[in-house]
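Table S2 (text version). Query chain:
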Amino acid sequence: MRRAIGLWVCILASAPALAQSVNGSLPVLSVGEIMRSALRQNPDLLDSRDAVISAQINERGVASSYVPQVTPFFNSDRDAETGFRTRSYGLTASQQFLFGPLLEGSATVTRSDVAVDPTQPYASDVRLSLTQNLLRGLDPATVGEPLREAKRGTSAASRSFEISRRRTVLSVYQAYLGVARQMETLRIARERAERARQLTEVSRGRFQAGTLSRLDVLRAEQQEASTELAVNDALNLLEDFRDALRRVAGFPRDLEFDIREAAELPATEPDLAGAVDNVMNLRPEAQEARDIVVDAEFALRIARSNQLPSVQGIVTYESFSTGSSVSDSLHIRNPSVFFGLRSQYGLNTTLLYSQRREAEITLESRRRNLKLLEDDFVREVRRAYRQLDALKRDYSIAEANKKVAELQYEVAQLRFEKGLSDNFNVVDAENLLNSTRLLEVGSRFDILLARLDCLFSSGQLEVLPFIQQP
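Corresponding structure-token output:
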């Protein structure tokens, strides 16, 4: 069945009329099949995946600027009056090292028809320079910041994708359990409607026999009408949850299906103490918030470096020679090495000072936000666990109330059948039984959702166990 889900989706998308199988029944999907479809086809998740791919492509593009850059060139000029030609060809190369230095070089060979010495028409020019920032830009962070930012973009997109995957798991279970709950609610509503019809028939018969009043018949008819309304509402809500499940699973909008009975979660929530201790290490949002603080620290380092005077040390090697051929002209003759310093510093430093102060304020703000986020996550975990404990207590109460309501309904029905009372007690007991049944069903499904919330809030909602379900 797991492999058949993709075939079902394709067939039903192209031909909605085939939604019915050969024997007229609908395909029955498990939560594992729906989960795998959602992680494959959910439109929001596909957008997050595309964002990761775009960030990876951008990172490769930025990283390519830190490998040797080689550019060959060729140039040919012709004097219109004399017809003499000058041809130049060669290459330029550069290498920006992540730890700071910039290495640049060029090699050019020129052939001229109007050379000073006709026997040596070729001239070569070889240059090699090494530049190193000595004050401003000496911090390697200033040179490698573009690559670091590109890598951060990839990590941020990857974390966003992981968050989207976890939220997709959460959304699938919410919609899936919503469908399961409404199917159970619909079953209860139909059983209640059937009992109401039987009560109406019995009340009418006993009214004709003179053992009940017209008021009892009207009461039974009103009860029957209210149960029909409940069935209609349950059917409407069931379709709403089915639409939500189609949306989150990436199903065609006209796909008709049933679901298997909701099972237990494939993971167990940790104890409260362990959840609180590990939440900042397991939540991708917390990891991203920490990296945002690191971003601010790098921004401050760069702002401080930019406030320093610009002083660069430059070492240059040059060689110029001529020859009768290309290889002859490339022989090193009269090489020279130069060393120098280059510096500049503006008199108006207000902008640089403002950038540094802004970076300091941003860093403090992000550190404060990180601490607040940690407190919020701890509060979120504690709230989820409190909610789970409260729902477990509610479920125990709902189970006990359901047993009492069933017993009360049996007694009221027995007294009515024996003619010891009118149908008022039956209607009252029926309404109480219905409310306790709905409360018990709601509490049961709410516990599953609360457990899922505990896993998500504590950061221990791993996607793999959910997609490995049958």
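Notes on Table S2: The longest helix spans residues 140-209. Confidence is low (pLDDT under 50) at residues 1-24.
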